[in-house]
Write a structure and sequence with these properties.
The structure is a single chain. The protein has 246 residues and is α/β, with parallel strands linked by helices. The protein has two domains: 2-155, Alpha/beta knot (3-Layer(aba) Sandwich), CATH 3.40.1280.10; 170-245, Trp Operon Repressor, Chain A, CATH 1.10.1270. It has helices at residues 14-17, 20-27, 64-77, 98-104, 122-127, 144-155, 166-169, 203-221, 233-245, and strands at residues 2-7, 32-37, 50-51, 61-62, 85-95, 109-113, 119-120, 131-134, 188-189, 192-193. The strands form three sheets. A five-stranded parallel β-sheet has the order 2-1-6-5-8. Strands 3-4-7 form a three-stranded mixed β-sheet. α8 packs across α9 (233-245). The longest helix has 19 residues, at 203-221. It is elongated and about 70 Å long. The model has no long low-confidence stretch (mean pLDDT 93). Homodimer.
Length: 246
């Protein structure tokens, strides 16, 4: 996968893309990153990329020209022959989910546009981007941090990045429910003990316990997820038990 990021603060990405799983993914050849300062595409001597909004109002608006030309340049460099997904980081966009991460992980080329100021020239939305994404119902000073979140969540899904597919297939939200609790050594820590079933060696019982605890955690923390999750008869029975217990 190729990931291009357009930002006027490219230095923000050095530590994130050069560390941990994101760095290892690049070393394995699973992904190639490129961060471009789109000021370099401004058609004026001062490299200005924003201007006052027509009609007046507070704040500045990101101009269309630098973004149009920057995306066009990256698209022309794309050797895959497939059109890239051009993602606008914006609080007005669709709320980001694990399902969206899995969808983007199937692409060959992603371009992220990180804006600042009051907003974007509407023609960028209408003629350049393919997706507008928000990571939550709040406003950041720019799109850089939001794009880092999405890049991390997408890259970890690429083949061989985490080593085993099961590392992410059982994540919270990947299954549709929150993940079950985890424990590690020692079995007794200051009187707080690991559930006996996890020490039993009976994998069928362990799987049953994990599924039920996943349902319990989802019910306690995110019951809204059950609105779209297709419970089996057994899972529905466990949920009713959990409701009575709670």
């Amino acid at each position: 996968m190729k990931i291009d990021i357009l930002s006027i603060f490219p230095e923000m990405f050095t530590g994130v893309l050069g560390s941990s799983i994101l760095s290892k993914a690049a070393e394995k050849g699973a992904v190639q990153y490129s961060v471009t300062d789109f000021r370099e595409f401004a058609d004026n001597k001062h490299k200005t990329v924003d201007d006052y909004p027509y009609g007046g109002g507070a704040g500045m608006v990101l101009k269309a020209q630098p973004i149009f030309d920057a995306v066009s340049s990256l698209t022309e460099e794309n050797q895959t022959g497939n059109k890239p997904r051009v993602i606008l980081m914006c609080p007005q966009g669709e709320r980001y989910t694990q399902k969206k991460a899995e969808e983007l992980a199937q692409e060959e080329h992603l371009i992220f546009i990180c804006g600042h100021y009051e907003g974007y020239d509407e023609r960028i939305r209408e003629h350049v981007v393919t997706d507008e994404i928000s990571i939550g119902d709040y406003v950041l000073t720019g799109g850089e941090l939001a794009s880092m979140v999405i890049v991390d969540s997408v890259v970890r899904l690429l083949p061989d990045v985490l080593g085993k597919a099961a590392s992410h297939e059982q994540d919270s939200f990947s299954t549709g429910l929150l993940e079950h609790p985890h424990y590690t050594r020692p079995a007794d820590f200051r009187g707080m003990k690991v559930p006996d079933v996890l020490l039993s060696g009976n994998h069928a019982h362990i799987e049953k316990w994990r599924t039920k605890e996943s349902i319990r955690r989802t019910w306690n923390r995110r019951p809204d997820l059950f609105d779209e999750y297709p419970l089996t008869d057994q899972q529905r029975a466990w949920l009713e038990e959990i409701k009575k217990e709670d």
